[in-house]
Amino acid sequence: MQELVNRAKELLADGTVVRVLGWKAGDLPYNPEPAYFTSAEELDNFVYNGFCGANLSKYMIEASKLEGKTMVCLKPCDTYSFNQLIKEHRVDREKAYIVGVGCKGKLNIDKIKEKGIKGIQSISGAEMSDACDTLTIQTLYGEKTCSYAEAMLERCHVCKGKEHMIYDEIIGESKDTKDAERFAEVERIEAMSPEEKFAFFRNELSKCIRCNACRNVCPACSCRKCVFDSTKFDTAQKANVDSFEEKMFHIIRAFHVAGRCTDCGECSRVCPQGIPLHLFNRKFIKDINEFYGEFQAGADSEARGPLTNFTFEDCEPSIVTERR
Amino acid sequence: MSIEKEFRPKIVAFCCNWCSYAGADLAGSSRLAYPADVKIIRVPCSCRVNPMFILRAFQKGADGVIMCGCHPGDCHYSTGNYYARRRMTLLFSMLDYIGVENGRTRVEWVSAAEGVKFSTTMNEFVEKIHSLGENVRLEDLRCKN
Amino acid sequence: MQRIGVFVCHCGSNIAATVDVKKVVEMALLEPGVVHAEDYQYMCSEAGQAKILEAVKEKGLTGIVVCSCSPRMHEATFRKAAERAGVNPYMVEIANIREHCSWIHKDMEEATKKAVILARAAIAKVNLNAPLQPGESRVTKRALVIGGGIAGIQTAIDIADAGYEVDIVEKTPSIGGRMSQLDKTFPTLDCSACILTPKMVEASAHEKINIYTYSEVEKVTGFVGDFTVDIRKKARSVDMNKCTGCGVCQEKCPSKKAPSEFNRGLNTRSAIYTPFAQAIPNVPVIDRDACLKFKTGKCGLCEKVCQAGAIDYAQQDEIITEKYGAIVVATGFDTIKLDKYDEYAYSQSKDVITSLELERIMNAAGPTKGHLERLSDGKAPKEMVFIQCVGSRCADNRGKSYCSKICCMYTAKHAMLIRDKYPDVNVTVFYIDVRTPGKNFDEFYRRAVEEYGVNYIKGQVGKVAPLPNGKLLVQGADLIDNKQILKEADMVVLATAIEPDPSVRKIATMLTASIDTNNFLTEAHPKLRPVESPTAGVFLSGVCQGPKDIPETVAQAGAAAVKAIGLLAKDKLMTNPCTAKADELMCNGCSTCANVCPYGAITYEVKQVNDHGIREDRRIAVVNNALCQGCGACTVVCPSGAMDLQGFSNRQILAEVDAICR
Amino acid sequence: MNTAKKQAEQIKEISGVNPLKCMKCGKCSASCPSYNEMDIKPHQFVSYVVNEDIESLVNSKSLWKCLSCFACVERCPRDVKPGKLIDAARQVVVRQKGQDYLSPNEIPELLDPDLPQQLLVSAFRRYRR
Fold first, then answer.
1. CATH architecture for residues D3-127
2. In terms of domains, do A167 and A246 share one?
3. What ranges make up the beta strands (E) of chain D?
4. Distance, in angstroms, between C494 CA and closest chain D CA?
5. What whole-number distance in Å separates Cα of residue A298 and Cα of residue A295?
6. Which of A99, A220, B79, C465 is most buried, by CB atoms within 10 Å?
7. A122 touches chain C (CB under 8 A)
8. Does residue A290 form part of some domain?
9. Is the pLDDT at C651 greater than 50, yes or no?
10. How many CA atoms lie within 13 A of B80 on its CB side?
11. Domain range enclosing B56
């Protein structure tokens, strides 16, 4: 991390960038938050550790409008989002100095808490310089330990790889964390009966409080004005009044990012209700891969997305019935 | 004394102006009957059909939604139905995934000359919806009257 | 709030017999925005339209809903009426309660209920309509005719005579088409070449007509009044400007094994060839697949003998790009392949031929120099059998479902000509029906029977079997005499079904002109607009639209020309105002819409916007209204819904959905 | 429904043929190898079914002269297939007799559509006493 801070100070000093987009320590040991830094002094608050899950590429939309260049720290999976934003002319490549930061897997505090670890005072073992094997947690009730892998976010278990798709320089080491099949959960649901599927999603979605966190964090959901806030579809409303609206919202949300979603997993990470929202996006990704060939949004900043493309021989919609 | 009300499905058909709407007109002028449950909405092209329209129809109590367009390759706007085909495939797959019976949605390509196909398609579709019964999974209960 | 008037048409009894129009009026009055509703016998009539004018005047209507026939029928009529009444024409919506309701439902209560709902949907839509103004686009004063047969030639001459430039694109080396292959024409029996060649010459000599032979349409973009077309001029390997048409090259060419397309493969031609003697232009082409120079590198004889130095082996295909205001399709027909009709032994015996092959045999310039003889042994036939409806009127997947229309007449012609020239030849025609509607047509057929003694037998042939003695055993049935017939024939002629030339599929796709299951181009209206394609600016001439004989083809060619002239005579065209429009404040500038626009109508501009007090420069989608055709592809890919389609807006369609599901 | 109509419907159902599609071209009669043996010719079969004159049909010689060679079925341009109608008529006769070794009641009216009809007829012939 120190290397990162030093480099940021250098870039600020030589005028390459006028601000740095990274993370600063939060009020708890496990909730660092995205932040801008404009001076060497401010950079003293800079952190980068296992809890820095936030994808900073979306912040570059606003940063692109500001004067001067911004140094932005992007983890490997964040770079896909950044590419996708370039493709959609939402960020300005020229306004970004991309430092690809290493990643050893990001942590989900809820998973630690689920293990009954409470009253957390400090956590060690999640710094970039650490091996990231075991977390040592100081609590009000004494020291506890927890396996790093067991505390990882779901998305890190199905990691797309530790290669940065776009960067100006890379700082820090990465570690492969993939140990699960990306579509296993989707397949499990697909195998259910319609009644089970319906019950499963009704149960999950009934938790939705329409806080819009999933939408606001999503780097693909970057519309100036969301359809769900607009008068154009008569859909503007805040709370779900009926179970239909949860479904409508989440289907349309996933549909709008279908072919653009890089599967960064931010939606599920930020959902305060713990709804596995990525299951919608991943279903679209799986279908797109099956029907129209493998496609990874954000792998580059040029290729046409699958929903703005076609072949004469595409399958018919009846395939949904036929393959059952 | 209560009499079981006969189930009369609400079915929305989106038809592109150039092929399917004309096909429906031909079915009409050829007097090829299909149930009155089907109501047609004219759109310029199948690619104008937003998934939102389909969900909205279900929300408001539609029991089935069918989209008809020109045959692939014959789109009046040359490529519209190809995009629509991908969109609808993904949407239908998603509806299936969340447990909505997949017989409630259908896409059929009907040319201006296929009045017979239009009529048989609608007859089949209405029959299918009858077998599935009322749409309870996607309906917005507030819309019930 | 709109002030809406609802007008319910009886359409005589077409609607009123199954829909309770009074009830529709009554229910419509309950809908929001409706201030007036009435019904009338015929809304499309002068008196019906006057009702609209009157109501607008009295009630100050801002929106109009007509519950009547399909909008494809009378939307334009009612829009014009609205305009006369001082209401923007795009404030009119049609509820289709005839084709989509009264004609398909029998139960009055049910049909009325549906009509009320359809009216309700239209009312809901009109409530959200906004006045639209059509734009203008220019008209390129030049027409393209695809196909150089009699249909294409006639259309081109007629358009050119009206003073407009016309280009003909013909894929073979000469114009003339199928008619140039015919020997005589019914019902007058005059020689086909004698009436066609003057037309060909007229076309080629016309100062306004430009002919691209051995050329194909490669790409079409643009729209009515302003098409841009790429034409591929295939390498002829002969310089059109230098060649004098002396024909020495064809004489000397050592490679003479290529089947002659013009003679339907009944004999061969040289590798460098003109299809027939009267070809226009009279400039040969080198068939590179057959030419020794191209195949082996050796030979080059034609270059040596050509005194004009016209041979050019290095010639390349050339792409010409030209702009047109109107396009006429005249791609014509071919006969179907007979490989699925084994029972007629076409592939087994040279003496079983198609009627088009018989035309070549009967023609003095044909493979037998006009002598009627068997292709197997050159002997003169004594017994000839004609089989009708081969591949026509078939409900199975082997043939075509339609009647090819011309076969009855040309078979009568063939039978008559043979009996006239060779009175000792017996001619038997097996028919299912003899169809001869047309001026002097039935008289013609009757002459074949009464004056020429042609033996017509009602009944299809079941099988033709080649016999060891070289004859053909024809097994048929006489349904009038209730007898089965076994006949030994010397030659059998099959009245083979015709189908649109296979090239038409590609062309239709390029033109976005719709095509039916038989590959015939669809007309805009089967009765009222038979020579127009539903695609604006595209017209249909000849058999590409449906089976036709020569007089009909020529008549339709003229009609297509008139339609094209009517278009070219305009200086400006009104463009459809139902175009896409981006909401500047909502547009993300993401370019997704431009990716799916088939017309390249969307570009991006950096514009300063004032978004609720925030002034900033934004990249925003801008729609070119002259290019946009209003398909709406952009509206659905736009995630924010910034892009909307005027006349079919998201809210309008949703309002219809709501009204229907209510 | 009277008996004739019922039988006609039965024949249509068993054969899967819509006789109204016939355009009276006579290709069936032209193809038939047993034509001269028949009193009602193949092309006439269709109109007997249309006119619901099943009585004459089942009493005709033709019913048992048809070889089930299926030439007419193969060549019929309109998918009317007189051969199938004849087969169906035979089935009706066989079922009517009601004294067969194989009771017609044991056989559903619609068998596996891939099963050739003539197989069924031969079965009836073979097991009949």
1. Orthogonal Bundle (1.10)
2. no
3. none
4. 15
5. 9
6. A220
7. no
8. yes
9. yes
10. 32
11. 11-140
> Is C364 contained in some domain?
yes
d(CA C25, CA D94) in angstroms, rounded, equals 61
pLDDT given at position D129: 42
Residues C57 and C123 in one domain: yes
Residues C151, C190 within the same domain = yes
**At A174, which amino acid appears?**
S
Three-class SS of C242-290: CCCCCCHHHHHCCCCCEECCCCCCCCEECCEECCCCCCCCCCCEECCCC
Q: Are residues C539 and C557 in the same domain?
A: yes
Query: For chain C, which chains pass the contact test of at least 3 CB pairs under 8 Å?
Result: A, B, D
Q: Nearest CA to C77 among C59, C61, C64, C62?
A: C64
Domain count for chain B: 1
- Domain of residue C526: give its range: 142-234+317-332+501-568
Please indicate, yes or no, if residue B106 is contained in any of the structural domains.
Answer: yes
Is the residue at C70 inside a domain?
Answer: yes
Give chain C positions within 8 Å (CB) of B80: 598, 631-633
Tens digit of each residue's pLDDT (9 = 90 or more) over C621-636: 999 887 788 999 999 9
Cβ atoms of C44 and C74 closer than 8 Å: yes
Q: What angle do CA C408, C413, C416 make, to 5 degrees?
A: 125
Give the structural domain span for A218. 184-322
Q: Which of B24, B78, B54, B17 is nearest to C645 (CA)?
A: B17
Residue D76 and residue C396: Cβ atoms within 8 Å? yes
Q: Which amino acid is at A102?
A: G
Mark yes or no for CB contact B12/C509 under 8 Å.
Answer: no
Interatomic CA distance for residues C528 and B11, integer angstroms: 32
Are A107 and A50 contacting, i.e. CB atoms less than 8 angstroms apart?
yes
A148 within domain boundaries: no
| Same domain for A258 and A164 | no
Same domain, A164 and A69: yes
Number of domains in chain C: 5
Rounded to the nearest 5 degrees, what angle is found at the Cα of C447, between the Cα atoms of C446 and C453? 100
Minimal Cβ distance to A201: which of B86, B93, B98: B98
**pLDDT band at residue B1 using 50, 70 and 90 as cut-offs:** very low
CB atoms within 10 A of CB A10: 13
* CATH of residue C91: 3.40.50
Residue C121: what are its φ and ψ, rounded to 5°? -65, -40
DSSP class of B40: E
pTM score: 0.71
**Is A176 part of any domain?**
no
What DSSP state is assigned to residue C452? T
CA pair distance C630, C579, nearest whole angstrom: 5
Identify which of A234, A304, A309 has the shortest CB distance to residue C651.
A234
Q: Between the CA of residue D113 and those of A313, C230, D108, D116, D117, what are the distances in Å?
A: 32, 53, 12, 8, 9
Assembly ipTM: 0.79
Nearest residue in A to C658, CA atom: A234
- CB distance from D29 to chain C under 8 Å? yes
B100-142 confidence digits (pLDDT tens): 988 999 999 999 889 999 999 999 999 999 999 988 888 876 6
Structural domain contains residue C662? no
CB atoms A197 and B98 under 8 Å = yes
C439 — contact with chain B (CB < 8 Å)?
A: no
Q: Are strands C184-185 and C190-191 parallel, antiparallel or unpaired?
A: antiparallel
Phi, psi (deg, nearest 5) at residue B83: -65, -45
Across the C:D interface, residue pairs with CB atoms under 8 Å apart total 72
The set of chains that have 3 or more CB pairs under 8 A with B is: A, C
CA C615/CA A226 separation, integer angstroms: 20
Handedness of CA A286, A287, A293, A297 (dihedral sign): negative
Does C588 contact chain A (CB < 8 Å)? Answer: yes
Any idea which residue has 């404040």 for tokens?
A: C585
